[in-house]
Amino acid sequence: MTHIPHDAWVLVADGEKALFLRNVTDGEDPYLQVVSKQEQENPKDIDQSANRPGRMPDTGGGQRSALDDTDWHELAKERFADDLAELLYRRAHRGDFDRIVLVAPPKTLGELRKKLHGEVERRVIGEVPKTLTNHPVDEIETQVSAALAEG
């Protein structure tokens, strides 16, 4: 695949934000317009943790081991991938898009890929493992087009 076809969607996401774009021109010179934005409130883990990690006795006399505390920030990112996959399924089922390019950091892309419904998977025409959520739309067009042309 070397371009973003007319009317194809481009999802640009990370663990907290998602931007849905649609190509309103031809694939040779894409022009992406914002369809919608999703954002999750996800403070740093330290702001979400209630206390310090717990401790439990070891088998040795008087020794104690620290227990890992839950990483709430990472959990929220995984939950965001769940929510995003569900939203993509609803939008695909409604017929909002026939083709979509997924753009996300490798870890987020992997999480999202695991959660996608078959109806959405069949519509994925390309993946770009990059973080572009804070880039302007014209820069996203350039980077996604270049990445698709390479791969």
Characterise this structure:
With 151 residues, the chain is α/β, with parallel strands linked by helices. It has a single domain (9-40, 69-150), classed as eRF1 domain 2 (Nucleotidyltransferase, domain 5, 2-Layer Sandwich), CATH 3.30.420. The chain is 36% helix and 23% strand. It has helices at residues 45-48, 72-93, 106-115, 118-121, 137-150; strands at 9-13, 17-23, 32-39, 55-57, 64-66, 100-103, 124-128. The strands form two sheets. The chain has a five-stranded mixed beta sheet with strand order 3-2-1-6-7. Strands 4-5 form a two-stranded antiparallel sheet. The longest helix has 22 residues, at 72-93. The radius of gyration is 19 Å and the shape is globular. The mean pLDDT is 83.
How is this fold's topology laid out?
Blueprint (H helix, E strand, L loop, with lengths): L8 E5 L3 E7 L8 E8 L5 H4 L6 E3 L6 E3 L5 H22 L6 E4 L2 H10 L2 H4 L2 E5 L8 H14 L1
Helix pairs in contact: 2-3
Features:
about 150 residues; alpha/beta; Nucleotidyltransferase, domain 5; 5-stranded mixed beta sheet; 7 strands
